[in-house]
């Protein structure tokens, strides 16, 4: 076992020099993506800046995440405070995640209809959080580039998502609900954090998948005439050293060769990496879950009692945290190369706070990468931020109607 653990530790180890190299390559891909050149970082403008904190009103929000959809009513007070008045969560059935677009969007419209069934049928401003890579031309429209997080719904890639949700609402006799903001969950998280505290200038999602965003001040976008939040879609970052287990996992996914960073960092894949290592080193005897792909989840890793399995999981989780720290450092040093200012980073996701020691590894790695300046990065957890952030986007939209 000692020999096995030593080998696993070596395979998943990332030294300081490796992480500094990742930061350099991250900057190269950020620059190329902003120029519209080939890059594994899409650098997608969200066509919304940071909020003032005075945004006010009551808004309907639908938040479509990795496995669930949440519908909620959100009230913004206008003095940097917000509250969720009511909410409903529904799991997205697996067949809908890999079926036809009509079935998925009809399901979303039904959930929204059920939630608002007792509401007056008056013009209702609506925000839709869509947690997948999309190219936007305005704050309320976006074309899906590709599915991630295990989704593969036919007929949506290359289509305008805002139009699809609006059509489904109309088909469900909900035409009084007007889409005012279509927004990525990562961007919504930054809007929520910044609405509460203007010191926040970066947000990270670390859940089923992973992503990040920040306000781009070096590049002005003609269609906005001002800075805009950039959605990096960093789960697709490709310049990371992969071992045999990474390659085995990748080749058996619906999108081989894509989402390389997500497959090394996010909650959806960490358990599967541990399962693949265990299957090869110990076999499946006595562990029925090891025979089923994705039978071991990141949530289950936290509750493991077998010390040997914990020991195998540890270097895989440590690598995840160190890659995340390097990516955060890359974005912050892109914004402020000399670290003249203090930067607050909002992280939404159970892996950051729920896995024992994960947050400490991230913070220690930042200190390692930024000696004597690590205290310039303050990384804090936020919870369920994307729904309220979508309401903030709705309030900021040039198209927003009066709140109901």
The third-level CATH topology of the largest domain is Hexokinase, domain 1
Order of helices and strands: HHEEEEHHEEEHEHEEEHHHHHEHHEH
Oligomer: single chain
If you average the pLDDT, what whole number results? Answer: 91
Number of domains: 2
Largest sheet: 6 strands, mixed
C-alpha end-to-end distance: 63 Å
User: Could you tell me the strand content as a percent range?
Assistant: 15-25%
CATH architecture classification name of the largest domain: 3-Layer(aba) Sandwich
Bulk shape: globular
DSSP summary, beta strand count: 13
Task: Work out the helicity level.
Answer: 40-55%
Describe this structure in words.
The chain has 404 residues and is an alpha/beta fold. The protein folds into 2 domains: 2-44 and 203-382, 3-Layer(aba) Sandwich (Hexokinase, domain 1); 47-197 and 385-396, Nucleotidyltransferase, domain 5 (2-Layer Sandwich), CATH 3.30.420.40. Helices cover 40% and strands 23% of the residues.
Per-chain topology:
Blueprint: H1 2-11, H2 16-34, E1 44-45, E2 56-64, E3 68-77, E4 82-91, H3 94-97, H4 101-115, E5 124-130, E6 134-138, E7 141-144, H5 161-171, E8 177-183, H6 185-196, E9 200-206, E10 210-221, E11 226-231, H7 244-251, H8 262-265, H9 267-282, H10 298-303, H11 307-335, E12 343-348, H12 350-354, H13 358-369, E13 377-382, H14 385-396
Parallel strand pairs: 2-5, 5-8, 9-12, 12-13
Antiparallel strand pairs: 1-11, 2-3, 3-4, 6-7, 9-10, 10-11
